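Suppose you are handed a protein chain with no further information: no name, no annotation, nothing but its sequence. What can you learn? This example shows the usual starting point.
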Amino acid sequence: MNNKIWKYFLIFFTIVIVLELGIYVSDYDTKLVKKSLFYFDYDLPNHKISENNELLYELQPYTFHSYENNRKVTINEFGFRDKKRTKEKPENITRIIIVGSSNTYGFEVSDNETYPFQLENYLNENYQGNYEVWNAGISSYMLSQELELSKRVIKNYNPDILIIQLANEGRRFFLEDYDTTVFLNNNKELFHENIPLLISGNNFFRSIHHFFIEYSGMYRIISMKINQLIVKINLEDNCENITCLKQKYYVRYYYYGDYVSQKKLNDFLSEDYDFEIIFFDPVFVTTFNIDLTKKNIHYFYLNSSNKPEEYMLLHPPSHVYAYYVNQLGNYLETNNLIEK
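A reasonable first move is to predict its three-dimensional structure. Written in structure tokens, the prediction is:
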């Protein structure tokens, strides 16, 4: 009897290995997951595919005018929406670099209306010293991408103050009309983000899911098929997009993206820094756990609840960004990071 069981087990194990090898060679799992990815399609001419498997996409040097809403968008030689800069920091300059998503990039405003541009002018007019404020915002970036870009900023551009604007939560976007296979093959965390365990929110089952989603192509395919069925059954009436997925399941898509971002945040904060880092929530309080006991780590929430509704928009008009600037200046002064 035992020999028979072992024989069946060996046959089963062989079939699994053959299937896994077939999926690996054919990339069938990565081709299947493409259908459920989020894609980014705004201001595409100034974006490019990144060679970094965490970033996915970046900005490229480009200038254009959007006549639809009268915007000028300029991307400099370093791939930032910013004026021309030098890599070497000039003497007697305090260099502030703001890494963020569309709110920092300035989704609906012109170059000179973004809050990093306004902040540079404000600081130089009202505070002692000379200041550069770089705009390193890239639309639709999640915290995991912001932290990866922050590593590049720290390595290459020597900031005195690094501001990381928090906003987006959930899974990363990909550039539309580009092959995503390389990213999925080289960064298995992207499978975590895009194939959540929808059938259960139990932490024990999640931990098992985390393991198999990373190492088994067959498990990924089975999970995707189950998720497709759950999504189909649980969409609200007359809706085909998962943004209309019933709340219990929709939240799980967010959980896995934030799971990856929190892991990256913990790794980022495990390092010691000899300059100041400010995590900045301009619109709403995000759910990330930031260790504020670490040296040189700060958190600033811009509470605008007593202001008009437009102050709570993710992409506000330029006069709201002017309010950001005033409040950021006050925060920097209050925490003795700049002098009046």
